[in-house]
Each structure stands twice: as C-alpha cells, then as structure tokens.
TrEMBL record:
An example Gene Ontology molecular-function term: triose-phosphate isomerase activity
Name assigned to this protein: Triosephosphate isomerase, cytosolic
Compartments where located: Cytoplasm
Domain of life: Eukaryota
Gene transcribed to yield this protein: LOC111296416
GO cellular component: cytosol
Source organism per UniProt: Durio zibethinus
Amino acid sequence: MGRKFFVGGNWKCNGTTEEVKKIVSILNGREVPSQDVVEVVISPPFVFLPLVKSSLRPDFHVAAQNCWVKKGGAFTGEVSAEMLVNLNIPWVIIGHSERRLILKESNEFIGDKVAYALSQGLKVIACIGETLEQREAGSTMEVVAAQTKAIAAKVSNWVDVVLAYEPVWAIGTGKVATPAQAQEVHSELRKWLQANVSPEVAASTRIIYGGSVTAANCKELAAQPDVDGFLVGGASLKPEFIDIIKSAEVKKNT
Ligand SMILES: O=C(CO)COP(=O)(O)O
C-alpha cells in the first residue's frame, strides 16, 4: 500500500507575526520522524505564508487554506492558485467545513476548486465531513459520499490528493471521534473509492482524520488501519503538535 503518514496543521484564522515566529521556532527545534515516515504540512493564513515558508524547517511543507476556483483576475479578496504556485506553495486545503458551512461553498464549487488547483500543479487536501444533525439522522455515509463524488467527478489523477475526513461535530469541540467511528467512515470511504474510482486509487489515497485531535488521543486513532494521518486545528498551534507528528511511529510498527 505504501501510504505515507500525513500530518497537517491548519492554523485557521489565527496568529500574529510574533506568534507565528514563536510557533515556527518551536517546530524547528524539535526532533520528529524522518520524511520517509511522515509528511508534515503547515497551513497558516495567506498573509503569513511567505514568513512561514522562509523560516520553517525544510522537511516541513506549507499549504494555503483556500484558493480561487479559476484563473485569477477581477475577483476582489480572492487568492489564485497561480499566486500560490508563484510563491512556491505546494499544497492547498480545499472544502474545509468552515468554508462549506459559513461561506456556503457547495459540493460542486469545491469539486471545481480541487480540479483547478490540481490543474495548476498544487497538491490538495480535500475536506469532507457530516454535521451532528446528519450523523444523528443516520446519513453520514450518504453525505460524505456525495461530497467525495463531487470531487471525484472532476479529478482524474489522485496522486496529489489527500482526503480529510473531518466530522463537523468534532471540530473545535473537544469531542473527538472514537477510533472506531473514524475507522468506520475511513474504511467506507476507501470502499467508495474502490467502487467508484479504482482499486489502485483506493489503496494509495491517504484518508486523514480531523476534529479535536490532540497528543492524548492521536496514537489510538493512528493505529486504525484506514487512518493515514491527521488534519489538526487547535493543537497545531501548540507544542503538542510535535507529539501528534510522532504518532506516525505507531504506523511504522503495525
Ligand atoms: O478543522 C480542523 C482541522 O482542519 C480541526 O480542528 P480542531 O483540531 O481544532 O478540532
């Protein structure tokens, strides 16, 4: 299979220059498993991308948190995929639930964004996940399958895509999915990819979990066979992010 463990740190809309410098210096000073074992990607707000890119250790990479759906131009307030490429930013997060729910980005719009970002040479962390209401109504798989379908419809090459399953009820709530809950959805998503894309894509695509991941719960989650890493919010702004990166070691021993 060979799916390299992936840990993303999504800083969301947080940080000042001073805080950014402090977090970067903490990240730079700690030992973590080698790049053969874990791929680490840090995602600061747009305005801090150049600072983080120029000061972060070379074995960690950077991601934007969003980009425009097509070529840049007269789109006030947007940042284009071309600009990220121009700044040598290799990754972008697309379809985070905060953008889906607060900014009303639809499945189709997100599919278009993923396709355009890939076409420009960016690698994409594509986010999906159900709300509490949807989970309680028993429609989790239906929701995440529809979200994945809208992405799959526009993607022909999955090599540069990481799928992030982030149940909305677990984001920023301290209410992490249990290892069994995460494994269940990840395994169903892999089956969905197998049936609707290809067995090769299903076997090789990393499906990472996000939602209240901490140093305390990451090892148990990482031990699940279909959990290939994490997208971390709050804890990525703290030194414990290093411990979450180290949970990649769990995988090495399984
Ligand atoms: O949304 C997330 C990462 O993209 C998860 O956020 P928290 O880790 O703060 O719950």
